[in-house]
Design a protein that fits this description.
Helix content is 31%, strand content 25%. By secondary structure, it is of the alpha+beta class. The protein has one domain. Strand 1 and strand 2 form a beta hairpin. Helix 1 runs antiparallel to helix 2. The longest helix has 16 residues. The radius of gyration is 13 Å and the shape is globular. The termini are far apart.
C-alpha cells in the first residue's frame, strides 16, 4: 500500500476514500464500514486528515481516529473512558 499524502486540493473525505481504496482488502472494507457507522451515529461529524495520513472524525473535538495496520484496523477514541457503556463491555 502506498502512503496517501495530503495532496493540495483534496478534501479530508477524498483522502480517506483514497486510503480505503488503496488498502484494497479486508482492511479497506472494515475502515469503510466503521466510517459509515460513525456517520450514521453522528450525521454532523467532520472528517479530517491529520498526522501525515490518519483519518480523524470530529464533532466539537476529536471523536476517534482510524488506523490500518498489517493485521488490524484500529479505532482510537480520544475520550473512550468517558463513553457510555450500558452493556458494561
Amino acid at each position: 500500500m502506498k502512503k496517501s499524502g495530503a495532496s493540495q486540493g483534496q478534501s479530508a473525505s477524498e483522502l480517506i476514500s483514497k486510503r480505503i481504496a488503496e488498502l484494497g482488502d479486508w482492511r479497506g472494507e472494515t475502515l469503510s464500514r466503521m466510517r459509515k457507522l460513525i456517520k450514521e451515529a453522528d450525521p454532523d461529524v467532520v472528517e479530517e486528515w491529520k498526522w501525515m495520513g490518519t483519518p480523524v472524525w470530529s464533532h466539537d473535538g476529536i471523536i476517534c481516529t482510524g488506523e490500518s495496520y498489517k493485521n488490524v484496523v484500529k479505532l482510537t477514541f480520544s475520550k473512550g473512558a468517558s463513553l457510555k457503556d450500558p452493556a458494561r463491555l
